[in-house]
Amino acid sequence: MSLSTGRGLTRAGRPPFPEGRPPSRVRSSPVRATRLAAIFASLAAAAIALPGAGGAATARSRGQRSRGASSACPWRNSDQPISKRVAEVMRNMTLGDKIDMVEGHGTSNPYVFYMAGIPKLCIPSMGEEDGPVGVADGLTGVTALPSGVSLAATFDPGLANRYGRVVGAEEAGKGASVNLGPTVNIDRDPRWGRSFEAYTEDPFLNAMLATTEIDGVQSQRVMSQVKHFDAYNQETYRNTPSDNVIVSDRTLHEIYMPAFQAAIEQAKAASVMCAYSTVNDHYSCQNHYLLTNVLRQEWDFPGFVTSDYGALHSTTGGAFAGTDQEQPFNTYYGQALKSDVQSGTVPPAVINTMVQRILTEMFRFNFIAQPPTGSTSATVTTPSHVAVSNEVAEAGTTLLKNAGGALPLSAGGAGRIAVIGPSASASPTYAGGGSAYVIPSKTVTPLQGLRGTAAVGTHIIYKQGLPTDTALPAIPPSDLKPAYAPTPSGGSYDGTLTAPQTGTYVLAIDNPCGCYTSTYLYLNRDELIDNPSTPPVHMYSVAVHLQRGHKYALHITGQSDKLAWGTPSQLAPGIAKAVAAATSAKTAVVVVSDDTESEATDRPSLDLPSAQNELISRVAAANPHTIVVVNAGAPIAMPWLSKVAGVVDAWYPGQTSGNALAAVLFGEVDPGGHLPVTFPKNLHQVPAHTTDQFPGNGSTVRYSEGIDVGYRWYDAKNITPLFPFGFGLSYTRFEFSGLRVSPQSTDGLHDVRVSAKITNVGKRAGTDVAQLYLGDPASTGEPPRQLVAFNRISLGPGRSARLRFTITPRDTWWWDHSAPGGSSTGGGWSQTGGRYGVYVGDSSALANLPLRGTFSIPSTSGARQVVVHAPDVAHPGKTARVKVTVTASGTETLDNVSLALQVPQGWTVKPVGSNVFGRVRPSAAPTATFTVRPPSYWPNSNAVVHATAQLGPAATREGGVTVRVS
Predict the structure, then answer these.
(1) CA distances (Å), 773 to each of 139, 602, 750, 927, in order?
(2) Which residues of 853-891 are buried (b: 16+ CB within 10 A; e: fewer)?
(3) Does the predicted TM-score (pTM) go above 0.85?
(4) For residues 458 and 486, what is the distance between their CA atoms, to the nearest angstrom?
(5) Buried b (16+ CB within 10 A) or exposed e, 821-838
(6) Disulfide: which of 322, 537, 757, 866 matches 738 by Cβ 3.0-4.6 Å?
(7) In contact, 414 and 457? CB cutoff 8 Å
(8) Residue 169: C-alpha distances to residues 82, 111, 162, 173 (Å)
């Protein structure tokens, strides 16, 4: 399946809902069916049937209020348009009822976020539940899926759709109405603690996976709340003014917003979660530019916005900016909002709009007529769900090194295999920490999986190699003055550590609070550990090299109840046993993990915790046939890379970890994963390599790398990373040939077709991810190359296939903050004439892009923008006039430019005169006039009037304004 879209991402097709199509915007002319329609038709045809509720379909959700049918609720089973049903409900609501719907109801409810029902109006309660990688928040009987980054490594939107179906089905079985996910924030820096639950550093791949996963979730009649909007890319300083992201509009639109735009415009996500970050001096949940100018007016989002946990900081700030629901508290949207409405500080139209958005989505998902069922105590995991989880884990496993064909191993006849490391059995890592952590229903350790797959002739032995962190002994008073004593919340400890030996030590600290509040460990003022005490790990460790007799200042700040260490002599026996086992084995498999990746913390370095790096080095020195298996959600440093035969990144593989790993190592499946993030050699290479950029200087976080994020930075600066974005080896080899680009010259309004031949030149079946990168003219200021299409393909030995890609006009657009006539969103899209490069291969590195071609765009539409002029106030049942103008720009004369107006459901819209212009010269700014009329039943609220301009067959631009209906 060939996948192609670009910096602006559009497609057609929606998952069906029980009551028919969800409410659509009324348009004055049809909008083009987009290039992804065929892709999603094929996804639908291949969709698997997943049990939706795991046997809990008729159980009442814990804490659910009674919602019996009532003749006082004529809207409940009505076939009237949703907008009319919403208005009818609102006519019967008191101010108190409205406050109930927009305020949080504390933390004692069945779900992490909760909206109480209103029985007298037949409005059911609405549970909003984590999370992005499965049902979280401490609930059991669920499937612990692989991490988001593992899903991204598959480069498989079809698999993402099935992943989403599992998430949606299990949320529905638990009685939840809203899934708090997926996490689509860009992986700006490998130190970000939540990298594992997000997808990638690339906005195109991000958007492709987000849309299909959301389609999967919402196909199960569960709303998707895509998060966290916007520019939320670190945990340090989060939810404080110190995390004040200073970022350009261009960078936001080209890097940090595309996945959100795709989630809204393509997948029709019901809800958006605003973020902890402060963006250009305004909290995200109080950011009018983000929530109104972009989300509502530019993208025409009709759904509701919910605050992240405690991310709202002002009643009027949030209400006027566009946050519709505070969660999980009612600090600002409880009595404070009620008082502001009663006093006139907040106009009735504002709270009515908030309620209207929530009710619209509840009707769209048919929650009023058929309230969600299920129970938080139900077991919702099923064998088919676990099978999907395992398939994602296998498909995402990425082979980074395979010297001399060390892999695959033979299941039978492989001789003696030494499996080494706490992560292989004694202390396995299945997932990252924080709100995304899912409690597995059942687990398979790497050791169990390998032993279960090994056949006669293969003998597996296990050596732990290192103590688990929880087994480390306390530092004795003889080596630490004064003696350590547990520290309370907000407390601290200072001591002097005297090293009794020279060598590698492990220091570890336990934070027992379970409170998402960090405890820090410093050595000589260097931060070594940031431990937030999030589930599932409360004890973090780090390796340090100390000199015998040297004194080191040790400082702890925050709550702790254990300070432990492993000295060189304490670590030596375990390492020696591992080395002996490796020496006697044909192959050594060292399983390592980073269990410190979590919400509420950023990693101080890229090093593995404990003394795992030393363990690998010692084992590799004893056995050159050493394979390293990494369980981590982000890039790690690999100082031992040149010494080992193979490296397999299994990411956080979910609960079937061992089964998926064994299938890959023993060659039952090809390791088809490709890196969704760049692996740097060290932190000096990363784009945000200065303190001002990450984590900030205490007042601002400057995104001064701009659009050069991830591989864009490495390419622009000619930096060679450890492993490039898109990289991944197979057990076979692939070659590319026969590049075709057509046409060679285009008007910038039509698609460019690209095809290439891929051949499996090896002796076994395998999988590759073919990638197409586009290089813009230098004058655009764009990076050297950007991913605009990819195709995951499996071929038998000697087989070939012709890959087909599409480069759309929007793939060539860039955001011009000074676009003339641009709306209040801070500019608009532009296009530059010139020669464009086409690169095809299987990673972002030029060495892996063997096919090169070009096409040219002699003249373009330039920075034409859609400007909408509408009255500030429209009246129900009354006609008003709206003008839509396309600004003059570019160097190209356009033919048959079509202007259309989109208004909310129930409104009427009609062009006055022509809205199609046969010939538009670069200096011309055509204007179309429309009459619009809100229905007589429309409540006093705010609405968006949105317009599109079809500049050519494959080029549409958009804009909008907010109108108060009163």
Answers:
(1) 42, 31, 18, 37
(2) bebebeebbbbbbbbbebeeebeeeeebebbbbbbbbbe
(3) yes
(4) 48
(5) bbbebbbbbbbbbeebbb
(6) 757
(7) yes
(8) 25, 16, 10, 6
